[in-house]
Structure formats: structure tokens, C-alpha cells
Amino acid sequence: MTMKKITLLASALLLALSHSSKANNISILATAIIHQSHGEYLVNVKLEHRDTGWQHYADEWRIVDSQGNILGSRVLQHPHVNEQPFTRALSNVKLSNELDTVYIEAHDKVHGWTKNRLRIDLSKMKNGRLTSRSK
Asked: Rounded to whole angstroms, what are the CA distances from 11 to 7, 8, 22, 46, 76?
């Protein structure tokens, strides 16, 4: 095998690996939390994931407390191959006054739950609204 062929094969392998690892990375870009009524909130989450189709796409996000209790979950019914990033909402999420921190977690069909979750400091809520962005 010539050096040129080895270089081309190595480049192709690196390119393939970089695409597959990017598909694994669900980026939780931002969230907006808006008070609805009686301790219930509307939660909007903006995600980015290199969806490839029905076999591999971001299929859920959830909001959890510091102990990992699920406070709300939004199942994503289809891939968003040509719609990146995208925002989806979940209404009537109950957030008690005792909560000071919650987390947004995201899931894809192949790799499961991402370790990169978004921390939300609820003490920063003003007039029933809070917006957080990833760093």
C-alpha cells in the first residue's frame, strides 16, 4: 500500500469517527422557563444534535432535580435532520418553591442520556421568567 493510500484511508477513518462522535453529542443550547399558574411552568428547551434519521436522533429531553427525580419529560416523536437546532416545549411542569436548582438532560436513540446537562439556577427567575444558555 502506498503512502498516499494510507493517508487517504486514515483521513477517511478520522472523518467517519468525527461524524459519529458529533452525532453522539446532544447540545442543550438554551432553556426558557415561564410561570403559568399555581406552581406550574412552561419549559422550552433548545437542542442541537446531528440526527441521521429514524435510527439515530435526539428522542427526549427531561427536567430533573438535584436528586435525579424527573419533574417533566418531553418525548421527541421524529428526527430533526433538516431542522437544527430546534426548540420544543413542555407545559404544566410542577416546580416547587423549595427547588433552587434543576437540570435539563437530553437523550438520543443510540447513545442514551448525555453527560452534558444544563444546570438551571431557579433563584435567578424574575417576574415568573428565566432564560439560561449553555456556556
From this structure: 6, 5, 16, 33, 34
Residue 31 CB coordination number (10 Å):
22
In this structure, what C-alpha cell is assigned to residue 31? 432553556
pTM: 0.79
Closest CA to 62 of 114, 7, 123, 17: 114
SS3 65: strand
CA-to-CA dists, residue 75 to 43, 85, 102, 107, angstroms: 13, 16, 19, 9
Residue 117 is given by DSSP the state P
Q: What is the pLDDT of residues 94-130, one digit of tens each?
A: 999 899 999 999 999 888 998 889 999 999 999 999 9
Distance separating alpha carbons of residues 40 and 96, to the nearest angstrom: 9
**Full residue range of the structural domain in which residue 28 is found:** 3-133
> For the chain, how many structural domains are there in total?
1
Please compute the mean of the pLDDT values over residues 78-97 and round it to a whole number. 88
CATH number at residue 54: 2.60.40.150
